[in-house]
Amino acid sequence: MTLNLFYFLSFVAVFSAVLVVFSKSPVYSVLYLIITFFSIAGHYVILNAQFLAIVHIIVYAGAIMVLFLYVIMLLNLNKESEPHKSNVIKFAAAICAGLLMIVLVGSLKGTELLVQQNPTDIGLVKNLGKVLFTDFLLPFEIASILLLAAMVGAVMLGKAEKH
Amino acid sequence: MIPIDYYLWLSASLFTIGVLGVLFRRNAIIIFMCIELMLNAVNLIMVAFSNYLNDAAGQVFVFFIMAVAAAEVAVGLAILIMMYRNTQTTDINVLNRLKW
Lengths: 163, 100
What we know:
- The structure holds 2 protein chains of 2 kinds.
- By secondary structure, chain A is mainly α.
- Chain A folds into 2 domains: 1-80, NADH-ubiquinone/plastoquinone oxidoreductase chain 6, subunit NuoJ (Four Helix Bundle (Hemerythrin (Met), subunit A), Up-down Bundle), CATH 1.20.120; 121-163.
- In chain A, 75% of the residues lie in helices and 0% in strands.
- Chain B is built from 3 helices and no strands.
- Chain B has helices at residues 4-24, 28-52, 57-87.
């Protein structure tokens, strides 16, 4: 049952990821990427990381992809205006990605099998919060400074130039 | 239960598709989306190992990756809008002066 669910979610994720790359209009790419993110959130639920699944949906599907859609509509890019690369470059890109896949397959082949632990509640808010606020307190605070700097940078970059 | 290799294969495939998209497309927005895809492949493998090794540190790392991804997208899209304002396009080949 879980295995069938895994196969289904993996198929949806890989299929819509391929469509992200090959669809003509950027708006369709964004929508397919949202489907990919939802199926990855399903994988998180299978892996007993329920809180992370919810955060993933909120942050990626709710915030980042809406930002992408706003930018695409703001720049009025929803028509196919992209000039295509030459066939040589496309061929070279496909060869490079295939070589990377071969390297990954070769390095991952014959990995030692891990036995999955009994289902634990490690992915719930209580345990994650404890770890986050004891072992990882300093990186957590630095992440807040990073977000503040990103916000200031985005506002500064987006500000209209004075002429 | 599901063996860990299945998650390794799935993440490797998603990462490769992301790399293919970065190399294949010229629209800077789609290149950004493919970078998000690669980050998510890494996130997935971190959550898988965190579950299989029964260690919460992997899931905490995923939080930090999400924070960095949000910051990256905010700044990157602001840069993209400035680029569009100056050149009226999001084609990365227009910015080829950055190469040299």
